[in-house]
């Protein structure tokens, strides 16, 4: 166990962990929990002030890198800066994302580009930046943040957001297949939160309508589950167990069968 992990009472070895979208929401909560466990963090986001505040709450020794996740050169710079500071990367969390409230026929070209860039292109770039390093090293852990709505697109005004996250699922599973035999020590995880008590909905393009179906999960609970995922990597994490059951029921109702094994949490 690393010295920092021992000092902070962590029950797992100290890791070097990159988190995109770390200036607020799930990313910020995850960063603070991991810092308390003694891990060394490289935090990335576009908003310099907010990112610095999160890094300050995490304590000394962590790295904050102002990053536009929709630009490949920024993601490469994030990787290289992390390696320069810590000499290695153990876990890469593609967390950055943005919501939108638009039904299918209302989505504009600009909104389409924004949502695809932030929610999908950023994940692709993260994968393309870190996986070659993990391959050379022979091990690593990639965590991609998706959404329950990517499986059950039951909220129509999240149309293009749900579609972008569905594409994240597909990219994640395709990468898992590519690495399964040749690099079994590279773990690939997909996280599927439902509603979470953050400013995500408030910051969504077009705002977010309120309704009785929105039962947000506490962000600290979600972050805690992700800490456990980093400790015990597995293919899929539904942060709300009820969401997993609803997703299985949705597949049975829609297709007459259970979802493919890739969405089994175990």
CATH architecture: 3-Layer(aba) Sandwich
**Global geometry:** globular
Number of discrete helical segments: 8
Low-confidence runs: 1-10, 198-209
Q: Assembly state here?
A: single chain
CATH topology: Rossmann fold
By secondary-structure content and strand pairing, the structural class works out as alpha/beta
Q: Which sequence of SSEs, written as H and E, runs from N to C?
A: HEHEHEHEHEHEHEH
What this model shows, in words?
The protein is α/β, with parallel strands linked by helices. It has a single domain, classed as Rossmann fold (3-Layer(aba) Sandwich), CATH 3.40.50.720. The protein is 46% helix and 13% strand. The chain has helices at 3-7, 25-36, 48-58, 72-86, 109-137, 159-180, 219-231, 241-255; strands at residues 16-20, 40-45, 63-66, 91-94, 140-145, 186-192, 236-238. It has a seven-stranded parallel β-sheet with strand order 3-2-1-4-5-6-7, with helices on both faces. Helix 2 (25-36) packs across helix 7 and helix 5 (109-137) runs parallel beside helix 6. The longest helix is centred in the middle third of the chain and has 29 residues, at 109-137. The relative contact order is 0.13.
Quick structural summary:
This protein has 8 helices and 7 strands; from the N terminus they run H-E-H-E-H-E-H-E-H-E-H-E-H-E-H.
